[in-house]
Each structure stands twice: as structure tokens, then as C-alpha cells.
Amino acid sequence: MKLLIIEDEQGLRESIDKYFTEAGVLCESCSNLATAISKIALYEYDCILLDIGLPDGEGFTLLEHLKENGKNEGVLIISARNSLDNKIKGLNLGADDYLIKPFHLAELKARIDAIYRRRAFNSTNLLNYDLINIDLLAREVTVNAISVVLTRKEYDMLLYFIANKGKVISKNAIAEHLWGDEIDLVDSFDFIYTHIKNIRKKLMEVAHKDYIKAVYGVGYKFL
Amino acid sequence: MKLAAQYNRATLIITVAVLFIAGVAYYAAINYIVNKQLDRDLVEELTEITDYINTNQHLPRPLDFEGDQTTFIKTDKDNLETTFYDTPYHKNRGNKTEQGRAVQSLIYLKGNHYIIVVAESKEASENLTQLIIGITILLTAILLLILILTNRYIFSGIWRPFYHILQQLKAFNVADTNNINLNKTNIDEFSELNDAVTVMASRVKNDYQNLKSFTENASHEMLTPIAVITSKLDTLIQDEKLKAEQFIQINDIYTATNKLSRLNQSLLLLVKIDNDLIHDHATFNLKDVILEKEHQLQELAQNKNIELIHLLEDKQITASRYLIEILINNLFNNAIKHNPVDGELYIRLTQRELRFQNTGDHNALNSDEIFERFKKGKNSDGTGLGLTIAKNICSQYGYSLNYSFESPYHTFKITFND
């Protein structure tokens, strides 16, 4: 997968770049609209990560540019403005998703993966990881051809883990992914533990392998 | 008391007082003139009688002469000044008594002294005085009527700009977008007042707008740094060389950052509700929203083993679904968070109201304070904005949100008022 990161905040841009590069994504990044437009003209990307507030204009300009030029890149908008109008405008202009700052890199990775999957595998809708096979349309998980019955939240978590395989995911990131940011985090940590225990158990029964490793105090890692 | 009434009262009192004094003065003057005239007549009469006596050397028969009554009384006094005085006057020697004027003098006849009294009726002059008083009263009444009518005209006409300003000031709301709208007036004082009010209103609005946009901008500007912190933490925890206690510290930073971010989002939301910036109104069933929220939060309730009972009627409302979800979420979260283990939570939705009743602390909360910004319970780790937001969302749609406590239940009640 090839990703273009358009973000003017250097610290954020570097973190995203590092996280995705380590996950095996080919990343290019730039900090303004002009550079982004010239890059799009020169290269093909699978996905574009677009900040709305850029120093030389609004990210919407880029969406219009993509539309005019018949480009078909998946676009995820990141914005500090939690505004419904902006979100609707972005989605109407052809963006695939809208993420509000601040966000966890794990969440960003999961969302980008989802966009990429929808665009790249829209024929099969199958996702494989190691022994695990997931039918994304039917929301069915099989391991070694044996069906694994997961609850809705467990299924969400599994996809989230697979998108961030090999990375330590903080409990905060998981909680926000499952319940949104309206919930008090401390209350939700117990449920995360319960859900993870269940997923582990269910996968262990069929794959005879522990996929999830706890990182003491902070979170979990999917291997 | 109204300005008009006050003014009317003052003018009435002054007018009546002045007219009363004028009336008294009038009466005194007329009385004086009339008496003078009568006295002259009496003197003339007296002279005639004296002349008659001097010529004929005997007293005339006491008789009515052109209505004058003359009386002679023999006296020993040899000295009496001529005096005039008011006296009752017996008409036709009969029973009828009128006001009269008399003069007494001393005459000398054949070695005897006589007091001569000549009396005259004042009837005619009395009538004149009464007429004058009548005219005065009539004039007073007419003058008062004119004054009242003039005042009424003045107040409805000249003071109209004032009442307009007053009305506009009463309707003034800093959060409104429309400006204060004042009529032009020729009266200097009112046009000055107009200018002052306009300047003040626009300054207040300006300050308020500045404050709001400051809040909004500050919150927005903070979100990007928070995003940087979060992303750096996400990167930091990938480092396998970190020790366990460092991870615990990182986790604390995560929690604090999350709280900061929620605080920011809440402040931004408050600004948006205050500015009436959320317009995605739709008509939907409130019951569905509650059931959805319940599904989402039931794990939290189960975790505390809270007995959750709902009794929900279908209730269609027209509002922003986004805001109503936040409202329900905040009330729900509140009811779960402050509930003890094995507590109870009742949700009741009717056509008129929505109630969240939960067990919790044994004492009532301060119902004046709980809806204020950053007021929160001792054990709450929330932002202190949840109930403020709930309250503001309710007032946005004309609902009222009230808190009450009836042991052991804390109740938050939304009344729909429609």
C-alpha cells in the first residue's frame, strides 16, 4: 500500500509516517496543498491522509482537484474541527472517512486499512492473517476451516488488532475505538480485559496459539 | 409608579393648589369690593337720615326704605364711632334671614343720644360671589381635563422613543445575532440615549463574540498539540526497552491527555450550542435513541450489577439527533457513574417527560450548582461539563431539566413543554 500524508504539523506527520512505515506501508508526506497537488499529479497512491487546515488553503481544494482529474484515491480527512458541516462537505466531495483530532495511530491505521480493503479487495472481501480468515461481508471468522463465533465487540477488536499487528496498542486506544470518546476510560478498562480474555480463549481453542500479548500497564500487542 | 402617573399627579396637585389660592384671593377681593360699595350706600343712607333729623327735629318712623332697615336706640353714651359690620338681615320682618351689612352711628336729638343702625341685604352680592366661584370651579375642571389630555398625548407621542428603547433593551440578548434596532427621534435626550444604547449593545455583543471565538479558537488550537502528544505516546509504547513502571506512567499521560481532549470537545460543544450552530434537525423517536444508548452502555451497568429498568413510550421529537444523543449519553453516564454497586436505575419516558432515577449518594445534591460549569461531585473524575451541556441542550429546545432527590433516588427530569 502506498500512502500520501498531507499534514502541516511536523510532530504529527512524523509519528504517522513512522507508524505506517513500520507497518510496511510505503509513505510519502508533505505539509502543504501545493506540494500535495504536484505529488498527486506525478504519482499514484492507494490512500491519502488529508488534513483540512493547511497553511496554503483548505484540504477541500485537494478533494475537488482529485474529482476534476478523475483520480480515484481513497481519502481520509483528519480535522481539528468536529463540525458536522465539514464532515458532510468532505464526504460529499468524495472523501471516504473523517477522523477528528486527537486520534490514536492505531485508530488511524485501522481506518486507512478499511478504506484500502474496500478499494482493493472489493471483489473478495476476505482478510487473512496467519491462520485466521475473515469474511468481511458476512462478518465470519474461521481458523483452520473451523468457524469462531465472536460477539460484535470481539469481532471489532479482532479487526482492529489485525490492522495494527505487531504494534503495542494502548488500552485507551482500544476503549476509544469500541465505545467512542464519550465514555470515561477508567470504567472501560475492565471490559477490555474481559473481551480480550474471551478472544484469546476462542482463538486458542481452534488455532492452539496465543495471538495476544499483554504489555504490562499500558496495553496489548497482536502477534 | 409610572412616569406618566407621577407627572399627572404632580401637575394635578400644583394646578389644584394654584387655582384654590386664586379662588380664595378672588373671593376676598370681591367681598372687599362689595362691602366697600355697600358701606358707601349705607353712609349715603345715614347722611340722608341725619339730614332728615336735623331738618325735621324728630326721628323718622322706622320703616323699610328701598330694602334698608333703620333702627333707633336711645343710649346714654355720648361718644360712638361710626362702624360697619356684617349682620343677619331679616327680610320683610319675617322669618327669612339673609346675610346683611349694617352701619351704626350716634346722633343727637333734643338732648338725647340715639344709636342709629342702618342694615342692608347682601343677597345680590352673595349671588355674584357664588357665580364667580362656580365659574372658577368650572374653569379648574376644564383646565385639569386639558392637562390630563395633553399629558396623555405627550406620553404616547413624545415619550414613544423612550418606550421603544426600553422594549428593545428588555428583548436584548448578547447571544442574538440581530442588532438592537432603534427609531430616529428629534428629541435630543432620546437621540443621545439611542446612541448610548446602540454603542453599549454593540460593545457588549462584540465582547461576547470575542470571548466565544476565543474559547472556540483556543480549544481548536489545543487539539493539534493534543493529537501530537497522543501520536507520540502511541509511538513511544512501541519501544520494547521500556520498563513496566514507565509504561504505567505513560498510561497516566494517556488518561490525562484523553481527559484534556474531552474537556476541549465539551467546551467546543458548549460554544456551538450557545451559538446555535447545530441545525441538523430531524424528527425521530426518542425511545430509539435511549434504547441505542442503553445497548451501548449496558456493559457499564452490568459491571456494577446495576438493576436497569426502563418503561418507554414512543415519543417523537424534532431536534438534532446528534445533540439528543449527547444529552441521553450524559444523563445515562451520570446515572451509572454515581450509582453504587448493586444500585438501581429507572428510565421512564412518557409523552410529557423523561426521567432518569438512580440510587447513589444518600444526600441530595445542590440543585442550584450541579448544572454550573465545572461543578462536580467529590468523587467524579469527569470534566464537570456533562450536566451543563445537558442543561444547555434542553434549553435549546425549550425543554426544562430539573434535579430532585427523594431518598434513595436522585432524579433528573426532562419536561418537554410541547
Description:
The complex is a heterodimer of chains A (223) and B (418). With 223 residues, chain A is an alpha/beta fold. Chain A contains eight helices and 14 strands. Chain A has helices at residues 10-22, 33-42, 60-68, 84-92, 105-120, 152-163, 171-179, 185-207, and strands at 2-6, 26-30, 47-51, 53-54, 57-58, 74-79, 97-100, 126-129, 132-135, 140-143, 146-148, 168-170, 212-215, 219-222. A five-stranded parallel β-sheet of chain A has the order 2-1-3-6-7, sandwiched between helices. Chain A has a four-stranded antiparallel β-sheet with strand order 8-9-10-11, with helices on one face. Chain A has a three-stranded antiparallel β-sheet with strand order 12-14-13. Chain A is globular. Chain B folds into three domains: 3-153, no CATH class; 171-277; 281-415, Heat Shock Protein 90. Chain B has helices at residues 3-56, 123-157, 160-171, 188-236, 244-274, 286-303, 321-337, 386-396, and strands spanning 64-65, 68-75, 83-90, 97-109, 112-121, 281-285, 307-312, 316-320, 344-349, 353-359, 400-406, 409-415. Chain B has a five-stranded antiparallel β-sheet. In chain B, helix 3 (160-171) runs parallel beside helix 4 (188-236).
